[in-house]
Design a protein that fits this description.
Length: about 230
């Protein structure tokens, strides 16, 4: 009996089972990205929402007002003097008739500032400020800038050669640009100011008093650049 008891006391039951390992997780480390990712996700959602809202607003604006591009034309030109002296002084007398067509039914335009500039061979030789005005819906307005005087222009050998060729042909390549400050009126709402530029590349015949030496002027459409 004692032998059996001793045998039982020395029995082998295997190694002891260790306690389970405890793991600790700190926010913002490991596989998760914490508050930083949440902030970026929220910011991304806000940007997407803003883009969608702006897109819908633009689309609704277009459906309501259906804006059309304003059209600028030079319909007639009178050039009675365009002489270049030996010291590069240009004597000129240039008058233009221009039309501005607003084809929109619901949009009016305030022309708060109109500055007309005349160029020859990229050299500006005169600037005139025209009277501001308001243009209503589906309306055609008229501008009549006049450039008279004399101005020193820096013409190199190539530009002087071009001038002599134009003088022989009786037609001068003159650029007239309008620098505008405008506002749009949509019902009772007025927008902020825009500063478009209008470029008119003209073939201007010289009128000597006995008729035009270089032919007749053709109505020219100008380019609108916002």
């Amino acid at each position: 009996m004692s032998d059996k008891q001793a045998h039982l006391n020395g029995a082998y039951y295997g190694p002891s089972i260790p306690p389970p390992t405890r793991t600790y997780h700190r926010p913002g480390r490991g596989s998760g990205c914490g508050c930083g990712c949440c902030l970026l996700k929220c910011l991304f959602n806000i940007i997407i929402t803003a883009i969608v809202i702006i897109g819908l607003a633009v689309f609704i604006f277009w459906l309501i007002f259906r804006p059309n591009k304003v059209k600028f034309h030079v319909t007639d030109v009178q050039l009675t003097q365009f002489n270049l002296t030996s010291n590069n002084t240009l004597h000129y007398n240039l008058a233009l008739n221009m039309t501005i067509r607003n084809p929109n039914r619901r949009i009016g335009i305030y022309y708060d500032r109109i500055e007309a500039r005349a160029y020859y061979e990229d050299q500006r030789f005169d600037t005139e400020t025209l009277t501001p005005f308001y243009q209503g819906h589906k309306n055609t307005s008229y501008l009549n800038p006049v450039f008279v005087g004399q101005q020193f222009v820096r013409l190199g050998a190539d530009e002087t050669s071009e001038f002599n060729e134009d003088r022989v042909n009786g037609v001068y390549d003159i650029d007239v640009k309008l620098y505008l400050r405008i506002r749009f009126k949509l019902g009772r709402v007025k927008t902020g100011r825009f500063k478009p530029r209008i470029s008119c590349d003209l073939k201007v015949p010289l009128n000597t008093g006995n008729g035009s030496f270089g032919g007749t002027f053709k109505t020219t459409r100008c380019d609108l650049d916002f």
